[in-house]
C-alpha cells in the first residue's frame, strides 16, 4: 500500500511540474487581431467622438450578430470572420431606429501557428474597405492594408 501511495505521489508531482508552462497560456496579442476603427468628421477630417453607436456583424451563419451599443465612443475593436471567407460585413447606426450603414471589409487570410494554447493566428492581408450603404456614415477612409496589430487604426468612418 505504501508503495502504491508513493508511486501515486510521484506521478501527481510529475504531472504538476510538467503542466503550466508558458505555452499553456495564450498571452494577449498572440491571438487573431481585431480590426480597429476610429471616427472623423467629413467636413474637416478631425477625430470625432460618436455620442451613440450600434454595431452589428455578419459572421456568415445566416444571422446578424449585434456586437455592441456604446455611447461616447472614439474607437472600436471588432473581431472579423475566422473561417475561410474573404469578407466580413459590418453594420453601423447612430440611432436605434435610424438608418444603417453597411461596410464590407474584403481581405486575404494567412494563418500562422502560435502555440498549443493559442493555436493558429489569422492575419488579414490586402484589406479593402467598401461603403455599401452611406447613411449615416458618409465615407470610409483606409489607414492600413493589413490587420496584424490591433493597436494601429485600420480605417476611419467619416460622419
From TrEMBL:
Taxonomic superkingdom: Bacteria
Protein name: Lipoprotein
Organism: Soonwooa buanensis
